[in-house]
Structure formats: C-alpha cells, structure tokens
C-alpha cells in the first residue's frame, strides 16, 4: 500500500448512523416498482378478487422486497468502496469517504435480510423462495470468489436477473394460494401458478438492455479505459461497440419473447408494441447523450417528457391488461391454403 493511500485512509472519519442507513439506499426502493407488471399480469391472468386481504399481502410483499433489496445494497456499498472511488459520481458515497465497521455492516445486512425473509414467509412459500433467490443473487453479484459484476457481459446478465425476480415477486403477491408438495412431487396446481417462461426471459432481457445502456453511459463518462477498469474489472474488456451490440441483442431478445407471451396469453397487448418500441428507442437516445442521465434514476427524472411518456405507457399497459378487444383474435385465426 502506498504512503499516499495510507495518509488518505488516516484522514477518513468513522461512518455514523446516518451513513449506515444511507448504504441501505431507501431512496432506491422506488426501483421495486418493477414488481408492478408481475402483479398486473397475475391479476389479469387469475382474476384475483381485490379485497383487504390482497392489499395486505401486497403491502407486506413490497416491504419484504424493499428490505431484501436493501440487504443487497448494504454489501454492495461496503464491498465496492475501494472501486467506487474511481467513479466520478460514486466516489462521493458514504463508505468511500468514511470508514465503516465491518461488524456493524454485517449486523445491518443480517437485520434487513432476516426481517425481509420473515415478511416473505407471511406471503407464501413461493414468495419466500423467490425473495431468497434475490438475496442469493446479491451475494453472487458482490461477493468473491463469485463477484459476477467483474465478469464481462455476465455483470449485466447477473444484475438484470433481478428484474424477472421482481416480476415473480409481484406475481406471487397476488396469485391464489394453491399448490402443495405431496408424495415427493408437486401437484399440477403448483406449476399452474408459475409465471410463463416467455415473460420471465422477456423481462430479463429488457432489464439487460437497461443495464447495458447504463454501462455504456458509465464507460463514456469515465472516458479512460484504464480508470474504467479500476472502477469495474469488466470494463477492461468492454468497448463502446461491444456494449452497443449487446444492447441491440438484449432489445431484440426482449421483443421476441414478449411477442411469444402476448400472442399466447394476452393478444390485446399487441397494440402496445409501437409504444414499446418507442420507449426502447427513446431510452437509447438518452443513453447516447454525453454524461447520460441513465447512470442513475435520480438523473433520469430530469427528463420530464420521457417520464411523462413512461407514465402514459404504463397507463396504456394497465388498460390493455384488463380490457378485452375481441376483434384482435383475428390475428390468431389460421388461414386456409
């Protein structure tokens, strides 16, 4: 360790209570809005009655999701501190400029994780397993020897898997409580409650597109391959072209699997495709800007027209999920030779 580094560390002050709360990132709980599509699709699919019991499950489920996500944020901030100092924005984070007690960080992680999983158990076993998977992916993404965030392309794939996990959490919040494990096998009712694989992959690839666009923006704003590699090892192997090509792949994959799901399960949603394509194109346009706002959600909020469009798009999706349009069945009719 260099003398300069030692002096810098000696100048750091110990983290306080506010700093420990900050690394749980309660301000980023808004990201858990990604459970909403899972809830909407499940409501439309199962026609679950909306009553007080369902509302209580949703509130409990959201609380559980937020707490488990915070547990992941805690270890992310602690283990990334030495790397974030090379990022022009993240170098201002609490644990980069202050010294944290690893024991207290571990206690904080345990508290968030245990309460989050305890609440998950109150929803259902399926919800609990999904919440545990979200927690597990946080370990895979951040903790060595796994630390998938340092692997080229795998960093995007492994982080964006949180999107379909959140979708599944939203799904399991509202589905009927059926499915038992009997005689060493699951009954058919259990499998009937699992989200279709096509929508899971589509949601995953959509998240990968968003994450790859964020990586592209970060790579450009750092504007130095050596420094970028110090911040995130996967950046050693990335180039702007590689990231752009991967973004294209994720977007096409998302559209393909989304089409499969909609044709099989909700033909009305086909009307959303032009708006869906515009959403991706607009987001890409923002991602290509200098010092792009896609690096952080707090910056993305400054794009008021985009946020307004996102709101309108969400309303459209909600309408198409619950309003039947019989004439669209024409697309499913087989034509005769």
H/E order of the elements? Answer: HEHHHHEHHHHEEHHHHHHH
Strand neighbour order, sheet with most strands: 1-2
The fourth-level CATH homologous superfamily of the largest domain is UbiA prenyltransferase
At the first level of CATH, the class of the largest domain is Mainly Alpha
Morphology: globular
Pfam families: UbiA
InterPro entries: UbiA_prenyltransferase, UbiA_sf
Subcellular location: Membrane
Organism: Chryseosolibacter indicus
Task: Reconstruct the topology from this structure.
Blueprint lengths: L2 H9 L1 E2 L2 H6 L13 H11 L5 H33 L9 H4 E2 L2 H22 L1 H18 L11 H7 L1 H13 L6 E2 L2 E2 L1 H4 L5 H26 L2 H7 L8 H26 L7 H15 L9 H4 L3 H19 L15
Parallel strand pairs: 1-2
Antiparallel strand pairs: 3-4
Helix pairs in contact: 3-9, 4-6, 4-7, 4-9, 6-7, 7-9, 8-11, 9-11, 11-13, 14-16
Main location: membrane
Pfam family, one: UbiA
Keywords: Cell membrane, Membrane, Transmembrane, Transmembrane helix
Could you explain how this protein is built, in words?
This protein has 2 domains: 13-175, Tetracycline Repressor, domain 2; 196-337. By secondary structure, it is mostly helical. The longest helix is centred in the first third of the chain and has 33 residues, at 52-84. The termini are far apart. The strands form 2 sheets. A two-stranded parallel sheet has the order 1-2. Strands 3-4 form a two-stranded antiparallel sheet. It has helices at residues 3-11, 17-22, 36-46, 52-84, 94-97, 102-123, 125-142, 154-160, 162-174, 188-191, 197-222, 225-231, 240-265, 273-287, 297-300, 304-322, and strands at residues 13-14, 98-99, 181-182, 185-186. It is built from 16 helices and 4 strands. The protein is globular, with a radius of gyration of 22 Å. Helices cover 66% and strands 2% of the residues. α4 (52-84) runs antiparallel to α6 and α4 (52-84) packs antiparallel against α9.
């Amino acid at each position: 360790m260099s003398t300069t580094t030692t002096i810098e560390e000696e100048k750091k002050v110990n983290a306080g209570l506010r700093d420990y709360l900050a690394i749980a990132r309660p301000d980023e709980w808004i990201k858990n809005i990604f459970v909403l599509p899972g809830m909407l699709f499940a409501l439309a699919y199962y026609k679950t009655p909306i009553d007080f019991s369902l509302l209580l499950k949703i509130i409990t489920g959201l609380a559980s999701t937020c707490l488990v996500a915070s547990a992941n944020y805690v270890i992310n901030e602690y283990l990334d501190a030495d790397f974030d100092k090379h990022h022009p924005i993240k170098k201002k984070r609490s644990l980069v400029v202050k010294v944290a007690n690893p024991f207290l960080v571990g206690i904080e992680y345990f508290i968030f994780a245990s309460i989050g999983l305890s609440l998950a158990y109150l929803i259902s076993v399926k919800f609990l397993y999904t919440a545990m998977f979200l927690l597990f992916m946080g370990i895979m993404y951040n903790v060595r020897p796994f630390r998938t965030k340092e692997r080229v392309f795998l960093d995007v794939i492994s982080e964006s898997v949180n999107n379909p996990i959140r979708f599944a959490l939203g799904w399991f919040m509202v589905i009927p409580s059926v499915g038992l494990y009997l005689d060493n096998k699951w009954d058919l009712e259990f499998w009937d409650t699992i989200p279709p694989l096509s929508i899971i992959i589509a949601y995953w690839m959509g998240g990968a597109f968003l994450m790859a666009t964020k990586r592209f923006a970060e790579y450009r704003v750092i504007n130095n391959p050596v420094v970028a590699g110090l911040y995130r090892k996967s950046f050693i192997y990335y180039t702007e072209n590689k990231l752009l090509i991967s973004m294209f792949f994720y977007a096409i994959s998302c559209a393909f699997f989304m089409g499969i799901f909609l044709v099989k399960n909700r033909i009305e949603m086909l009307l959303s495709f032009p708006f869906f394509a515009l959403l991706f194109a607009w987001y890409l346009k923002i991602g290509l800007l200098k010092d792009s706002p896609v690096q952080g959600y707090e910056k993305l909020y400054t794009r008021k027209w985009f946020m307004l469009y996102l709101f309108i798009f969400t309303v459209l999706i909600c309408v198409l999920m619950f309003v039947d349009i019989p004439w669209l069945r024409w697309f499913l009719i087989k034509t005769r030779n």
